[in-house]
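Need a sequence for this fold. Nothing fancy.
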């Protein structure tokens, strides 16, 4: 068995980590086991407040999910989706159509969240070509958003604060509306924002193809919740100008905001799902759209969606995704999410009085503390680990999106970890 020190040394010399320098890497910790909502990090069990970047909603080593992977692996682990199909993909498609709002009943199985957004944007552009609006090539979106790290995804991510300013001159130029008002903003703020969106749509309508946003909660762009009324405005604007409305629910889907999907409140034309889709077991994403959109795409010169990943519809991922959906729907997930949110709210509100804290906000099973300065990630992470919690702060935010299986004691530990991280960061 390789000693931990050797493993970490090789990692430091040879492996890139997300948004981390190869020549001056920040420290990483070694995970050797996982169970429930805990990780064994550097030999110590800590609560995972991040759900492995918001995906492991059922925690780790869940028997039902382990069994789904093992059972499918005993049959076959992968087969190309070109010209072939298999039961796990069909069953997952059936479940997704059943649990998402009508008329979203056409399913494209992608292999990551970023890829699903790329596919969604291709769908929008091909649809417009198919219905005779080939001049519509730009997307309307909002400041503060984040949609992934591939090129089209970067183009609809916040151009200044979204980590992709380096590529500004190379990306498609999209149309950005102001960030939506805060979730507790009054009707006047929503009305002013709506006027700005409508004005942009009027001025750019001839060149727009669609609208894309993260509904109810902007994730990596700032952990920013906003009112459902803003989604209704976007739906109206899309309909008025013949645009397709895309909801990126990769972070918000499967109950995270307290709704199974934000799309249950306002229905988009295209819906992207990922992260929690497989319960954090394997990479998989899905794009759902309508028969009308599918027919429009078929009317384009290509006649087909111009995308086909090698691991599209991977059987292992599809099998565990269906098991994860079944597990979620069989649980009292609404009560769990509500309980986590209530406990995070009660525990984090007192942090408003700490020096350096600019805001505290919660939505569903999400708790956020925003500082008035950039977080010292290394110091904040170390402080949280000292309290028995794994956190991954970014920019000016210390936040938690725990697994739904996290009980009151685990949430209290998370609050303690956030408190220590805020003090240190």
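Here you go.
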């Amino acid at each position: 068995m390789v000693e931990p020190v050797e493993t970490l040394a090789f990692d430091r010399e040879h492996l890139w980590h997300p948004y981390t320098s190869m020549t001056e890497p920040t420290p990483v910790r070694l995970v050797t086991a996982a169970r429930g909502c805990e990780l064994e990090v550097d030999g110590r069990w800590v609560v995972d407040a991040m759900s492995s970047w918001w995906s492991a909603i059922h925690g780790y080593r869940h028997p039902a999910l382990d069994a789904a992977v093992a059972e499918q692996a005993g049959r076959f682990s992968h087969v190309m989706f070109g010209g072939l199909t298999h039961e796990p993909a069909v069953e997952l498609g059936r479940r997704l159509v059943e649990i998402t709002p009508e008329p979203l009943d056409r399913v494209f199985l992608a292999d990551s969240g970023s890829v699903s957004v790329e596919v969604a944007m291709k769908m929008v552009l091909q649809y417009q070509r198919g219905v005779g609006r080939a001049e519509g090539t730009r997307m309307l979106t909002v400041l503060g958003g984040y949609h992934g790290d591939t090129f089209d995804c970067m183009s609809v991510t916040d151009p200044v604060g979204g980590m992709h300013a380096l590529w500004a001159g190379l990306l498609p130029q999209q149309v950005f509306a102001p960030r939506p008002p805060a979730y507790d903003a009054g009707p006047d703020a929503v009305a002013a924002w709506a006027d700005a969106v409508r004005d942009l749509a009027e001025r750019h309508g001839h060149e727009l193809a669609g609208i894309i946003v993260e509904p109810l909660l902007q994730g990596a762009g700032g952990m920013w919740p906003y009112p459902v009324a803003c989604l209704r405005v976007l739906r109206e604007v899309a309909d008025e100008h013949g645009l397709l409305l895309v909801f990126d629910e990769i972070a918000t889907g499967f109950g995270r905001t307290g709704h199974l999907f934000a799309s249950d409140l306002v229905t988009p034309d295209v819906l992207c799902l990922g992260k929690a889709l497989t319960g954090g077991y394997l990479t998989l994403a899905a794009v759902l759209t309508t028969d009308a959109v599918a027919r429009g795409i078929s009317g384009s010169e290509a006649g087909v969606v111009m995308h086909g990943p090698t691991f599209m519809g991977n059987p292992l991922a599809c099998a565990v995704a269906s098991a994860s959906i079944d597990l979620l729907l069989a649980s009292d997930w609404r009560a769990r999410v509500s309980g986590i949110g209530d406990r995070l709210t009660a525990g984090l509100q007192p942090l408003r009085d700490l020096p350096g804290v600019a805001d505290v906000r919660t939505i569903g099973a999400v708790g956020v503390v925003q500082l008035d300065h950039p977080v010292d990630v290394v110091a904040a992470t170390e402080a949280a680990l000292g309290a028995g919690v794994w956190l991954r702060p970014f920019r000016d935010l210390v936040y938690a999106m725990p697994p739904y299986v996290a009980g009151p004691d685990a949430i209290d530990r998370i609050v303690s970890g956030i408190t220590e991280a805020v003090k240190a960061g």
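For context: The chain has a mean pLDDT of 96.
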